[in-house]
Amino acid sequence: METDHRAASLKYWEDSHRAQSYDRSSIRTDDWLERFEDIIKQTDKAVLDLGCGGGNDTLYLLSKGKQVIPCDMSETAIANIKKNFPEVGETHCFNMLDGFPFEDGTFDLIIADLCLHYFTEKETADILQEIKRILLPGGHLIFRVNSVNDKNHGAGDGTEIEHHVYETKAGTLKRFFDEEDIRRIFGDFEIEFLNEEIMSRYKLEKRLFRVCVRKQ
Ligand SMILES: C[S@@+](CC[C@H](N)C(=O)[O-])C[C@H]1O[C@@H](n2cnc3c(N)ncnc32)[C@H](O)[C@@H]1O
Q1: How are beta strands 173-175 and 159-162 bridged, if at all?
Q2: Which of 6, 117, 173, 194 has a Cα at 20 to 30 A from 123?
């Protein structure tokens, strides 16, 4: 029987968010968005935080005086966000595979931190079409994704079901990008910044790509 990756992923993330206590004081930010301070400063619209999880980037953006709309498919993650960030007025709980509940051209900045690497290439392309649709021309998508060199966090583990996409033991999908993947998959956007680097927010170092793209 074929694995239901979508159901496995929802279960994985609900379990994971339930298992962690997200008190506001325990939420850790890192400085990855500092590089894009000018872009963040410029917008007077709400910033969309896709796959917000515990709210690391929501916290950072709020500290910069931004209005933020955190989104996640996990009801538990969204409940935690509402508890920890009462100043956030709007949140959305939806699966990115179902399309995005926003009008065309709503945003000029979207953050997607470590949440765009769970999909096949076709699914990723569909999600990017939606991101493009809800961005204004000239708007930015700033994101981080797993690198093929992220050995501490499962790069190359599991069954490869598509180039660089692996089915894990839990039945979830995980993609690991190389630079060529990013240039191909995000080819509809203008790539303004692309860098492979190490993130030290987790117990074990994580290798990822930090990327900023612009809708032309
Ligand atoms: C690795 S966590 C990243 C959380 C946060 N952005 C951060 O950097 O700490 C990935 C998040 O993406 C969410 N997610 C995964 N697949 C999703 C989907 N198909 N639609 C919406 N959210 C999804 C998960 O629930 C989880 O909260």
Answers
A1: unpaired
A2: 194
Whole-angstrom Cα distance, residue 130 to residue 180?
22
- What angle separates helix 5-19 from helix 75-84, to the nearest 10 degrees? 30
Q: How far is the CA of 60 from the centre of ligand 1 (A)?
A: 17
Q: Which atom of ligand 1 is nearest to the CA of 119?
A: 19
> Which residues of the chain fall below pLDDT 50?
none
What domains, with CATH codes, occur in the chain?
A: 5-214 (3.40.50.150)
Is the separation of the CB atoms in 16 and 73 below 8 Å? no
Query: Where on the phi/psi map is residue 156: left (φ > 0), alpha (ψ -120 to 50), or beta?
Result: left
pLDDT number for residue 29: 86
Expressed in angstroms and rounded, the spacing between residue 40 Cα and the centre of ligand 1 is: 21
Q: Say if residue 177 is exposed, middle or buried (CB neighbours under 10 Å; 0-12, 13-18, 19+).
A: buried
For residue 213, what pLDDT is reported? 98
The per-residue DSSP string of 137-152 comes to: EEEEEEEEEEBTT-GG
DSSP calls for 87-107: T----EE--GGG--SS-TT-E
Q: Is the CB of 173 under 6 A from ligand 1?
A: no
pLDDT at residue 181, as a whole number:
98
State whether the beta carbon of 115 lies less than 6 angstroms from ligand 1.
Answer: yes
Q: How far apart are CA 33 and CA 57, in angstroms?
A: 8
**Cα(196)–Cα(124) distance, rounded to whole angstroms?**
20
